[in-house]
Amino acid sequence: MQAPRRPGFPARLDGLQPPRAAVPAPAAKPGVLRPAAAPRGMGLDSAAVRARMVQRLAAAGIDSTAVLQALGAVERHRFVDSALANQAYEDTSLPIGLAQTISKPSVVARMVQLLLGADIAREQGLGRVLEIGTGCGYQAAVLARVAREVYSMERLRALHEKARDNLRPLRLANVHLLLGDGMLGYPAGAPYAGIIAAAGGEALPPAWSEQLAVGGRLVAPMAGADGRQALLVVDRTLHGLKQTVLEGVHFVPLKSGIA
């Protein structure tokens, strides 16, 4: 069976043209999210700043060397607005526009570490991963350092463009950005060794489970009957799906469609 052709960067879905490269303008237009400017004179590009964040993550229970190295390598301040850059290495979520947020470093680390705990990842290394909710691109950059290939979907065009502009300087050849409805997944790239979602709904979209490889793992926030979210881990085994509910989390709502 011929392997599906890998999409380009950024990818094209359902006849949608990839957004054109951003053109510098004297002032931002309403509704347009520009890439976060790299802060100057604050020392945030220092490896020591990220090392202290990594030390806090390790002290909090993150014990995967690969995850800690990835978090230490990705400059989080380049993915947030310059006005918030001094908070980039604190363990806090930050707004990135359009009522969306960049997740806490501890939550990113926890979810990526859970992906690496899948049977297939322990045996073969983490292969192809589907990320639902690209946001500003930070988690995709982290995933690129622990997975062989990353397909990252975003339903909001302005954020898709922002992530593209944030990630382009990093030249991550194994990351493919997709503008599309994340609730449908991306069947052309399936099966996936891991699926990770940055938005939570009341039910797991069937497409995600269907696109998960045997031995693969899905990690996503899920809302319970009381409306509170918790991390849900779904492992696909030879005998079916195994679900495990973990600690409480707080993510933006999962929505369908493209906007």
Write a structural description:
GO terms for molecular function: protein-L-isoaspartate (D-aspartate) O-methyltransferase activity. It is found in: Cytoplasm. Residues 18-30 have a biased composition (Low complexity). Residues 1-34 are annotated as: Disordered. Its EC number is 2.1.1.77. The protein is of the alpha/beta class. It has a domain at 104-253: Vaccinia Virus protein VP39 (Rossmann fold, 3-Layer(aba) Sandwich), CATH 3.40.50.150. It is 24% helix and 25% strand. A seven-stranded mixed β-sheet has the order 5-4-3-6-8-9-10. Strand 8 (212-223) and strand 9 (229-237) form a beta hairpin. Helix 1 packs antiparallel against helix 2. The radius of gyration is 17 Å and the shape is globular. Residues 1-42 have low confidence and may be disordered.
Could you give a quick summary of the protein structure above?
The protein has 259 residues and is of the alpha/beta class. Helix content is 24%, strand content 25%.
Q: Return Rg in Å.
A: 17 Å
Q: What is the subunit organization of this protein?
A: single chain
Residue stretches low in confidence (pLDDT < 50, at least 5 long) are 1-42
Range of strand content: 15-25%
Q: Largest sheet, order of strands side by side? A: 5-4-3-6-8-9-10
Output the CATH class name of one domain. Answer: Alpha Beta
CATH architecture of one domain: 3-Layer(aba) Sandwich
Query: Sheet with the most strands?
Result: 7 strands, mixed
**What is the CATH topology of one domain?**
Rossmann fold
Please work out how many helical segments DSSP would assign.
7
User: Which superfamily, in CATH terms, is the homologous superfamily of one domain?
Assistant: Vaccinia Virus protein VP39
Indicate the percent of residues in helices: 10-25%
Number of strands: 11
Principal-axes shape call: globular
CA(first)-CA(last) distance:
35 Å
How much is the average pLDDT? 87
The secondary structure category is alpha/beta
Order of helices and strands: HHEEHHEHEHEEEHEEEE
GO molecular function, one term: protein-L-isoaspartate (D-aspartate) O-methyltransferase activity
Protein name: Protein-L-isoaspartate O-methyltransferase
Family: Belongs to the methyltransferase superfamily. L-isoaspartyl/D-aspartyl protein methyltransferase family.
InterPro entries: PCMT, SAM-dependent_MTases_sf
